[in-house]
């Protein structure tokens, strides 16, 4: 669901999206956020795509967004920075505007969130845990459209054959994130170190 759908649910006079950007070793990251019932909520964590700038992604979701931040958003940014520095971070879902996701996607994202650092799962395994045999593709689509990468670590799900699979920030970023967590792939691209979860 795109942010236009959220805007449609809100009074256009009171809804105002904001963004905050910062530089990382992977390029420019951003948080797209707004106030909902007076509380700041993250609507998107935007990571740089292989062929698209962060700013272009921001404005494709919300052309009227303006640069701004607040203490709660600053805290999320600090947590993401700590995570990217290899620190153990337990992200809260309370700051996320989960209403942007379908009911099925929320289930997938909550399953994904449980995968611990140093472990991986597969689209098929997650589908099985959700009692959706044959639902690996649906799980893959839900993760491919994860609005909250890093906070919900969709980089921790790989293909059933042990290869890395896709990622919004590109395979190079996914591999680097997994390697930072101790999950390694051999020179043929297959998992050689890491525990399977689920």
What does the secondary structure layout of this molecule look like, with pairings?
Blueprint: H1 3-9, E1 18-24, E2 27-36, E3 39-46, H2 54-61, E4 66-67, H3 71-84, H4 103-113, E5 119-122, H5 123-129, H6 136-144, E6 157-158, H7 171-180, E7 184-185, E8 191-193, E9 195-196
Structure description:
35% of the residues are buried. The two termini are 28 Å apart. Helix 5 crosses helix 6. This protein has two domains: 3-84; 103-196, Orthogonal Bundle (Arc Repressor Mutant, subunit A), CATH 1.10.10. The strands form three sheets. The protein has a four-stranded mixed beta sheet with strand order 3-2-1-4, with helices on both faces. A three-stranded parallel beta sheet has the order 6-5-9. The chain has a two-stranded antiparallel ribbon with strand order 7-8. The protein is of the alpha/beta class. Strand 7 (184-185) and strand 8 form a beta hairpin. Helix content is 33%, strand content 20%. The chain contains seven helices and nine strands. The longest helix has 14 residues, at 71-84.
């Amino acid at each position: 669901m795109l942010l236009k759908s959220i805007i449609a649910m809100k009074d256009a006079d009171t809804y105002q999206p904001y963004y905050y950007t910062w530089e990382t070793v992977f390029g420019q990251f951003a948080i797209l956020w707004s106030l909902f019932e007076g509380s700041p909520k993250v609507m998107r964590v935007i990571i740089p795509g292989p062929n698209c700038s962060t700013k272009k992604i921001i404005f494709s979701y919300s052309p009227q967004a303006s640069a701004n931040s607040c203490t709660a958003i600053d805290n999320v940014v600090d947590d993401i920075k700590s995570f990217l520095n290899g620190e153990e971070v337990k992200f809260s879902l309370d700051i996320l505007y989960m209403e942007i996701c379908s009911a099925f996607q929320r289930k997938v994202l909550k399953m994904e969130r449980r995968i611990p650092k140093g472990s991986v799962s597969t689209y098929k395994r997650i589908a099985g845990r959700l009692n959706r045999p044959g639902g690996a593709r649906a799980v893959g689509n839900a993760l491919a459209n994860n609005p909250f990468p890093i906070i919900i670590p969709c980089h921790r799900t790989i293909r059933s054959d042990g290869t890395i699979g896709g990622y919004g920030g590109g395979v190079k970023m996914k591999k680097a994130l997994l390697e930072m967590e101790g999950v390694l792939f051999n020179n043929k691209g297959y998992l050689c170190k890491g525990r399977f979860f689920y």
